[in-house]
């Protein structure tokens, strides 16, 4: 059987074994000869070492060798990506536990970036390329060709993962130029000349290398599909594809459709950074998201190929409806590239474009609905006695469950009015990780358990390890997803390490962390089983078996012997006519279609309202407060006119119940004004450099201080980038009330509200991130004074130990870990910034009350005489920061600058 | 299963197979997955501020899931 017999390297003939007309060289070109000879020499040397010979299958044919190389490299990057997110999450749980963070901000956020890049492209994309190529060749009985094109493709993809990391200085060691810009880049973040945070050109070259590698692989696949087409056309068996190959074909077609846009956006960014090209950030993001969303569906096709391939084999009967499988694949191809804009729902794009994207996002439910119904129905009628729960079946089960679990929340985030609350929250990651960890990885593992014995020639060593792998992935994955969902429902942002330190957040964060640990540990069982298999596994033979039987035999080695069933094919005769089967499929799809129309109709008014609100400056209400916001890295400049006047940093001010009209623009990176109310409609608007965004909302009727973090990641000081909405009592409402009503209302459920503490009992202590009491803005201090004024006191401390690499207060970024503390000691324990108290005067803005220099290492007391009202305390102006250790920061290496403001808060003085 | 599928007992063991039919097992897992997704949505439907945005999509998914299982159970087997 061609599928399982080793395909030895052999001279090519004119027709090849498959009867295909292949290009023939009497003698290969010199370069190919050189590469072949070099590879052979390396292979012979490495094969002398048993470890290499067994692990890399150096005794097998070149196609098998490349496939196993891609699988091993994929698992390697998967493991490294796992360490990345482990690093990030240790910092998050450390923060909610009020511990010092031991990684720098750049390291923390590059961990998230590299986690996404390595898992997405190093792991899943590479694994998809490896196993789809293997399936194509073996399922269609083709002779693999163009070895060096495939090798080059693998080389480019893996080189890209290295390039995406950016530069590392070895002496003195400094890896703080890793890219800290999310798993993707959102122009202009990272682009030299357009952003305060700039990545190395290596990052952009990494994207181009990745695209080149994947597109080269696509060409390789197309060549072999053409071989099959010619072969099938010449044979009597016709052109019928197995159902799973339609999904594979969809992946091949979608690959260039997916990757060409990222080449365009990357080249545009490079031109803007190094060639002086004009940059339109919003247009660039629209182009990027054609890639950014399609890549998820491209990788989603891996488990679909896996399930369409494996379930009929395990069930010993064809897929329920072949024609619907074809329709599903075609719909995926058509719809996938058109959904990117739903990642930009809250930007000032035209309402028709966001509405249309919402409609198309609903429409892609149709191919998914076909797929999961058809796959489930494929199993209907399979008796229990003919089924075995090997690892392949178990992971197929997990994959389908995960894709349904995560997939059903797809329409949720696609509903534009609902997305106002969900956008950039951890709910989105809950949806995404259900798809990726459970669905995509589950499907990939099912395929891996099915083909690894075929590749290695050995049966899986341990049933127990395979089951532990399944159990850990399933339990850990579900736990991880639930943790993210719970945090997301609270309004917690993704990519955020500085979280509100509240018991509910801490518990949910530990649930997430625990799930992640279990998932990561579970993968060790797979790796251990893989090693044991190649060294100690029983020999696997597929002699005399069909391809399907060979797959079943491979899968069977992961099933307890007592529950195994014979692997042989069973003659299958259709008893239920196609019309009946397709009839029920049509009823299902018809139901889905009607529901989609109804849901779309229901969602339309909300969607149009969201877009109109972002695109149009709204007034329409008497006494509207007009606010101009200018988002920068890493603070907002606020100018207000209306009943309240003044200029502020990071502070919006409105009277209770007053309508607030916002005009917003930004520089350096996309910003987002995010106020996750729960007792009234949340506010969430994205502000993109070069574009104008608007919002109109009614301030809460309860006076208080509400949290308003930046909802969009904008660089390594993202965590400190938070504003607050101060809601003053109405001017005609009499004395300044206490915050009792605010607290009893739960601050309208805004999880980011700064905690309220009594000024007299307040013990403000700065932490390593330059924040008071692990809160940004700092705690809202509450005091009371008679109308004529009275004493108000509070104290604050900046411990010397809080000043490190993550603290923007001392701009010494040398690699000496004690540099910041030494700087302070050399400067008389004084920082060059003022700790100010300012009175908020609605008619004039902020009026100075007191100012002292920031002293380090001793408790400082503020003893003031204040009248009732609202005040700001602390560093009320942003502090400039430049990262430049050893003069290494350059346009080629990358650099990080910005203005940070975290050591501040509000002081609320009620009337006594 | 036909006689043609038999293989030596040493390879296949007692041939017990599974205790639950795969259609049932997959159906139960899909039911759990769908219920889990609805549980996630229910939080937002319970918030007055988000009820209007969420309820249409949630109801659509509830009806779709119901139809999925009803039609799946009603539909002819893959035979």
Structure characteristics:
heterodimer; A: 912 residues; alpha+beta; Cytochrome C Oxidase, Chain A; Immunoglobulin-like; 6-stranded mixed beta sheet; 5-stranded mixed beta sheet; 48% helix; B: 79 residues; mainly alpha; elongated
Molecular structure report:
The complex is a heterodimer of chains A (912) and B (79). With 912 residues, chain A is α+β, with helices and mostly antiparallel strands. Among the domains of chain A are: 28-56; 60-287, Cytochrome c oxidase-like, subunit I domain (Cytochrome C Oxidase, Chain A, Up-down Bundle), CATH 1.20.210.10; 617-911, Immunoglobulin-like. In chain A, 48% of the residues lie in helices and 16% in strands. Chain A contains 21 helices and 24 strands. Chain A has a six-stranded mixed sheet, with no helix packed on it. In chain A, helix 10 (351-363) runs antiparallel to helix 19 and helix 15 crosses helix 18 (547-556). The radius of gyration of chain A is 30 Å and the shape is globular. The model of chain A is unreliable at 1-20 (pLDDT under 50). With 79 residues, chain B is mostly helical. Chain B has a domain at 31-74. In chain B, helix 2 packs antiparallel against helix 3 (48-74). Mean pLDDT of chain B is 84; it is low at 1-14. The chains are: A alpha+beta (912), B mainly alpha (79). The interface between A and B is large, with 78 and 61 residues.
């Amino acid at each position: 059987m061609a599928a399982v017999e080793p395909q030895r390297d052999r001279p090519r003939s004119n027709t090849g074994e498959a009867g295909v007309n292949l290009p023939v060289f009497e003698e290969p070109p010199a370069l190919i000869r050189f590469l072949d000879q070099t590879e052979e020499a390396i292979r012979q040397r490495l094969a002398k070492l048993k470890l290499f010979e067994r692990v890399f299958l150096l005794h097998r044919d070149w196609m098998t060798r490349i496939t196993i190389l891609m699988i091993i490299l994929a698992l390697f990057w998967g493991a490294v990506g796992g360490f990345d997110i482990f690093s990030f999450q240790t910092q998050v749980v450390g923060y909610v536990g009020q511990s010092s963070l031991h990684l720098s901000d750049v390291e923390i956020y590059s961990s998230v970036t590299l986690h996404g890049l390595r898992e997405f492209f190093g792991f899943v994309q590479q694994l998809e390329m490896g196993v789809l190529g293997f399936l194509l060749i073996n399922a269609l009985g083709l002779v693999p060709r163009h070895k060096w094109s495939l090798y080059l493709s693998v080389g480019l993809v893996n080189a890209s993962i290295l390039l995406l990391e950016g530069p590392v200085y070895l002496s003195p060691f400094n890896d703080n130029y890793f890219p800290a810009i999310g798993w993707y880049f959102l122009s202009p973040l990272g682009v030299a000349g357009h952003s305060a945070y700039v990545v190395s050109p290596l990052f952009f070259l990494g994207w181009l290398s990745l695209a080149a590698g994947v597109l080269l692989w696509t060409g390789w696949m197309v060549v072999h599909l053409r071989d099959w087409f010619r072969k099938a056309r010449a044979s009597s068996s016709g052109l019928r594809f197995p159902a799973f190959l339609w999904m594979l074909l969809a992946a091949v077609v979608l690959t260039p459709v997916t990757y060409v846009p990222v080449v365009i956006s990357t080249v545009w960014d490079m031109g803007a950074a190094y060639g002086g090209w004009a940059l339109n950030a919003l247009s660039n993001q629209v182009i990027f998201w054609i890639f950014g969303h399609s890549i998820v569906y491209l990788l989603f096709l891996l488990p679909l190929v896996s399930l369409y391939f494996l379930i009929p084999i395990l069930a010993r009967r064809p897929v329920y409806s072949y024609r619907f499988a074809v329709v599903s694949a075609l719909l995926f191809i058509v719809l996938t590239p058109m959904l990117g804009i739903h990642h930009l729902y809250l930007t000032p794009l035209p309402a028709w474009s966001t509405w249309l994207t919402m409609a198309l996002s609903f429409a892609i439910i149709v191919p998914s609905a076909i797929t999961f119904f058809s796959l489930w129905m494929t199993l209907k009628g399979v008796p229990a006695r003919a089924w075995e729960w090997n690892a392949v079946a178990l992971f197929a089960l997990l994959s389908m469950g995960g894709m349904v679990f995560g997939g059903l929340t797809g329409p949720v985030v696609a509903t534009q009015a609902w997305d106002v609350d969900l956008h950039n929250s951890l709910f989105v990651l809950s949806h995404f990780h259900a798809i990726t960890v459970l669905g995509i990885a589950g499907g990939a593992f099912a395929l891996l358990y099915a083909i690894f014995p075929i590749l290695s020639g050995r049966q899986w060593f341990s049933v127990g390890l395979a089951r532990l792998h399944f159990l850990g992935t399933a339990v850990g994955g579900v736990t991880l997803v639930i943790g993210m969902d719970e945090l997301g429902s609270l309004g917690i942002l993704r990519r955020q390490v500085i979280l509100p330190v509240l018991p509910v957040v801490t518990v949910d964060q530990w649930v997430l962390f625990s799930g992640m640990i279990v998932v990561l540990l579970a993968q060790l069982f797979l790796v251990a089983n893989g090693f044991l298999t190649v060294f100690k596994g029983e020999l696997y033979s597929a002699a005399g078996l069909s391809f399907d039987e060979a797959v079943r035999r491979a899968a069977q080695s992961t099933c307890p012997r007592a529950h195994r069933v014979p692997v042989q094919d069973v003659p299958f005769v259709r008893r239920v006519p196609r019309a009946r089967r397709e009839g029920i499929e049509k009823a299902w799809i018809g139901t889905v279609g009607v529901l989609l129309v109804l849901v779309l109709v229901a969602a339309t008014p909300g969607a149009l309202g969201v877009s109109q609100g972002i695109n149009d400056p709204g007034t329409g209400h008497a006494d509207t407060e007009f606010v101009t916001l200018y988002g920068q890295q890493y603070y907002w400049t606020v100018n207000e006119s209306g009943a309240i006047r003044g200029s502020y940093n990071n502070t919006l001010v409105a009277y209770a119940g007053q309508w607030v009209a916002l005009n917003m623009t930004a520089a350096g990176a996309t910003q987002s004004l995010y106020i996750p109310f729960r007792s009234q409609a949340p506010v969430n608007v994205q502000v993109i450099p070069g574009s104008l965004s608007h919002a109109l909302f009614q301030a809460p009727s309860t006076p208080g201080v509400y949290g308003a973090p930046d909802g969009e990641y904008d660089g390594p000081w993202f965590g400190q980038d938070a504003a607050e909405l101060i809601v003053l009592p109405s001017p005609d409402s009499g004395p300044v009330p206490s915050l009792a009503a605010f607290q009893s209302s739960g601050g309208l459920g805004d999880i980011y509200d700064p905690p309220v503490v009594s000024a007299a009992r307040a013990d403000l202590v700065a932490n390593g991130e330059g924040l008071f009491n692990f809160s940004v803005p700092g705690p809202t201090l509450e005091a009371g004074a008679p109308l004529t004024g009275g004493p108000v006191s509070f104290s604050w401390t900046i411990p010397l130990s809080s000043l490190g690499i993550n603290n923007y207060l001392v701009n010494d970024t040398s690699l000496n870990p004690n540099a910041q503390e030494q700087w302070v000691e050399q400067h008389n324990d004084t920082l060059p910034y003022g700790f100010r108290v300012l009175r908020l005067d609605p008619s004039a803005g902020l009026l100075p009350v007191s100012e002292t220099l920031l002293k380090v290492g001793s408790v400082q007391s503020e003893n003031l005489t204040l009248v009732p009202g609202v005040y700001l305390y602390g560093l009320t102006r942003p502090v400039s920061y430049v990262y430049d250790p050893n003069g290494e920061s350059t346009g080629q290496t990358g650099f990080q600058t910005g203005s940070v403001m975290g050591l501040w808060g509000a002081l609320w003085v009620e009337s006594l | 299963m036909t006689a043609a599928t038999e293989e030596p007992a040493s390879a296949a063991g007692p041939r017990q197979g599974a205790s639950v039919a795969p259609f049932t097992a997959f159906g139960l897992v899909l039911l759990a997955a769908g219920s889990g997704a609805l549980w996630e949505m229910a939080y937002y439907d319970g918030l007055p501020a988000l009820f209007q945005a969420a309820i249409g999509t949630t109801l659509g998914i509830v009806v779709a899931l119901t139809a999925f299982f009803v039609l799946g159970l009603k539909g002819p087997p893959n035979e």
